[in-house]
Amino acid sequence: MIIDLRSDTVTKPTQGMLEAMMSAKVGDDVYKEDPTVNKLEERLADMFGKSKALFFPTGTMANQTALKLHTNPGDQVICDSNAHIYHYEGGGASFNSGISCKLLEGTRGMFTAAQVIEAINPPDFYHSPLTALVEVENTANRGGGSCWDFEELKKIRTVCNDHELGYHLDGARIWNALVAKPETARDYGQIFDTISVCLSKGLGCPVGSVLIGDEGIMQNALRIRKILGGGMRQVGYMAAAGLYALDHHMERLPEDHRKAKEIGQLLSGLEFINKVEPVETNIIIFELVDKKNDTKFLKLLSDKNIRLSSMGSGKLRIVTHLDYTDDMHDLFLNELQALKLK
Ligand SMILES: *Cc1c(COP(=O)(O)O)cnc(C)c1O
Predict the structure, then answer these.
(1) How far is the CA of 266 from the centre of ligand 1 (A)?
(2) Which class does domain 15-248 fall in?
(3) pTM of the full predicted structure?
(4) 252-338 under CATH 3.90.1150.10, yes or no
(5) 131-137 and 166-171 beta bridge pairing
(6) pLDDT tens sequence across 80-104
């Protein structure tokens, strides 16, 4: 048995999901004739209270499309220094949209409206890049699955209104925030112009992300997706997995959060652990007392068929998910407890 806690993307489709996929009605989605894709898009648009949604192969492509929709070459997007769009999208912001990122030093991947105001370049000062967009990530991945305070997100909305900036939410793990916090999908839909969501993280689908927004801003999304190579044909097989996941895998997310909290608690009590970031959802980020021991720590665990990931600068990451069973959880907690790191 391998206990893979590197990411919530390592899950395999469940039997029920596979059956839903196998019996999906499909068509050519490039002609917008795939009934299952259309159904998923309508469902998600409605869920977030927007008029349009578009299915994408990856969250990266959905985010990249959003950046393109909101900006012109030379513009600047304000985001956290830990943002996925900055760290993990291959430099796509500059490659695809010709824009730069203004990085804010937030707390656990989250910044404030005051920081945004300070980062906006005055539009008439033509020496600096034109600020066009604010991007936030909820939950924040490199922030340790942290959830934004909704009041702060609303304040940032006001700043965006005042300065005519677009407002994009990278909601790859918005599902985790939705179960951990009182706000609804519609609340998010009300304040953001565009929202990307991933079906392939906590929801356990093999493939799929969706970009959501109103008609106006989404007008060019289809064209940009085509340019990026994301127009797919009978992709309803994948959309069917998404519909199945919304029906069956949302409600089990608190289980991932509970397991993550238990792991976090146990780690905090171990003598070779220096610091565990607050655990709010399904991600645990922690540091060893002696960072030089990272490789050894990961090796000791991998000898026991347990996999975690390193995030660099001495930070280690654990992510709980659908395929991390109760048995694996018990075993992992026991192995951690017994671990001798000298
Ligand atoms: C996973 C992830 C994405 C999208 O990643 P893909 O692997 O391209 O689907 C975007 N943002 C965040 C925060 C993520 O964790």
Answers:
(1) 28
(2) alpha beta
(3) 0.97
(4) yes
(5) parallel
(6) 999 999 999 999 999 999 999 999 9
